[in-house]
Amino acid sequence: MKYDLCQLRQLSGVCLLGAGLLLSMPAVADDLDVLGRFIEQNQVTPVDPISSYSRSNNVLEERAQVAGPLLSSQSALIMNSRTGEILYQKNINQVRSIASISKLVSAMVVLDANQNMNEPITITDAEIDRLKGTGSRLSVGTTLSRRELLHIGLMSSENRAIHALARTYPGGMPAFVAAMNRKVQSLGMVNSRFYEPTGLDPRNVSTAHDLGSLVRAAGQYSMIRQFTTDNYGSVYTSVGKQQVYHNSNALVREGAWPVTLQKTGYIREAGRSMVVQTTMQNQPVVIVLLNSPTSATRVNDARSVRSWMLTRSQSL
After folding, report:
1. Is 183 annotated as catalytic?
2. 64 or 298: which carries more pLDDT confidence?
3. What is the model's pTM?
4. Could you tell me which residues are beta bridge partners of residue 263?
5. Is 169 a member of any domain?
6. Domain assignment present for 93
């Protein structure tokens, strides 16, 4: 059989290709074995999206905890009460209603006047709350000493008790409220203003920053420290009934914290608020929490502060 030049070239190409394939087959098999071993040794575990999100979220929470506690309160302050150093702040210069935290100012005004703490004072119709319509266990006609009224006014936030103290101040209620405003101005609380002694008026306002100064100043009064942290008290009213009072602050009632001064507050306009002076990680600390949604979130915020302080000290 005869082949032309072109056919001969095609035939030689096919032969060479076949020979090449035969010669290269063992090498391909070896390469496949190597590739298989490489895949086995470097297998990548499939990613679980839920686990991945959870780990990512935990990292974010840990980073947030280092930056500051996660709080429900709209304004918050953590301050070293000895040095005044601010350890954490959140909206500390926003002016807000402060409700019964006002009573700390009232207590300082009462004590600054050096009145007789054993003097009897009688609850009158003037003490009835006509602004918010709140009730009281102190019936009209009940007579207690100035000391007893201050005690239950601070410990249990008894509005009639504080109102009676202000009413019997030299010069009466107008002089008392004027003294409250002079007191806070003397403490440098430039964003604070008071219209009455109990905190029922939402126009009683301050800031978290100002309240840090207030707590530090109030902590200089031994009677305020004692009365705000007592857990029990009882008085007899005009109807001959014994009324038992407990502390308004759950942290004090639980007894797990070394609280040296505290005051809670609530009216609708102010939300749930609290100031506390305590010790954390060997530091004297003031905590201010303003406008938290509920009593539970207010206490949980305080606990979050404590956890953050522990985390912070471990990272330093």
Report:
1. no
2. 298
3. 0.80
4. 275
5. yes
6. yes
